[in-house]
Amino acid sequence: MAAPQGRITRGTTGLNRLRRSDRWSAHSPAVVAALAGPAPLAVDVGYGARPNTTLEWASWLRRVSPSVRVTGLEIDPARVVPGRDGVEFARGGFELAGLRPNLVRAFNVLRQYDEAEVADAWATVVSRLAPDGVFIEGTCDELGRRCCWLTLGASADAAPVPRTLTLAWHPGFTDHPSDLAERLPKALIHHNVPGERIHDLLTLADRCWDESAGYAPYGNRIRWRAAGAVLARRTDGAARPPRRPVRDNLLTVDWELVAP
User: Fold this and answer.
1) Fold held by 19-169
2) How far, in Å, are 110, 142, 223 from residue 118 at the CA level?
3) CB of 251 within 8 A of CB of 243?
4) Distance (Å, rounded) from C-alpha 188 to C-alpha 110?
5) Cα 91 from Cα 81, distance rounded (Å)
6) HSE (side-chain half, CA atoms, 13 Å) at 76
7) Is the pTM of this model over 0.90?
8) What is the pLDDT of residues 136-150, one digit of tens each?
C-alpha cells in the first residue's frame, strides 16, 4: 500500500452533521449509477475523530445498493477504529489506501488546505477511482445546516473533471442562498467576488429568492421551489432545483456555470 497522502486535519465531527449530503446521495443519479454494479465499494476519506458520519453514510448508501461495501479512511492512526456495523476502517488519505472504489467522499478535508493544493488532491483521488466512479468533495458548517459539495469524475486520461456543484441548506436557518458562500468548497470559496461566475450565481439566486417573497406565507421550502424554478429558467437549465419534494433547500448547477 502506498504511504498515506495528505496531512492530519482538525477532525471535528458530529452526529448527523452530513445528513444533507447523505439524503442527497440516496437519490443522486450519479451516485446510483456509480453503485449499480455487484458489491460496489464506497470510501469516506477523513472521517475525523469519530466514525459517526461514515456509519451514517453507509446506512444511506445501503438504500441504493444493499451490497455496498464501505470503508472509512483516516490519516491519523490514532483515529482508526475497529470495524463495526458492516463498515471497515483503515489508515489512508488521498491515495485511498490502495483501494479502487466506485464512490469516494471527502467532506471538510480540503477546506483546511490551500487552494493551490486542491488540484493535486483531486487528481490523486480520481486516478484511483474504478471506471465511471464518482468523487464527492465538500464542506459544511459545524451543525450541518449549510452544505456545499462538488461531484467529480475522470476524463479519458484519468484527469479530474468537476461536474456539478450542489448547495443544500436548512430552510429555517438561512436568509438568502448567498449565506452559503462561507461553506463553498476550497476550489470556489476565494472566487466569490464580483466578476467571478460563482458570485454571479449567488447574486442571481438571491434575486430570485427576493422576487419569490409572495410565497413566504407557505414556508421557505415552497418559496425556494418557486425561486428555484425562476433560477432554472434564467440559467437555461444549468441550475436545477430538485423536481421531487425534499426536506432541504437544494440547488445543483453544472460546473461550467461556476468554474473560476
Assistant:
1) Rossmann fold (3.40.50)
2) 7, 22, 35
3) no
4) 12
5) 9
6) 13
7) yes
8) 999 999 999 999 999
Record the cell numbers describing residue 227, joined without a space.
425561486
Helix, strand, coil percentages in the chain from 3-state DSSP, rounded to 5: 35, 20, 40
Segment 58-115, tens digit of pLDDT: 999 999 999 999 999 999 999 999 999 999 999 999 999 999 999 999 999 999 899 9
> How many residues are there in the chain?
260
Q: Compute the distance between CA of residue 130 and CA of residue 38 in angstroms, rounded to an integer.
A: 13
The closest alpha carbon to 105, from 63, 54, 59, belongs to 54
Instruction: Delimit the CATH 3.40.50.150 region(s) of the chain.
Output: 19-169
The C-alpha cell of 50 is what? Answer: 469519530
Phi, psi dihedral angles at 50 (to 5 degrees): -135, 150
CB 185 within 8 A of CB 137: yes
**C-alpha cell, 19:** 445528513
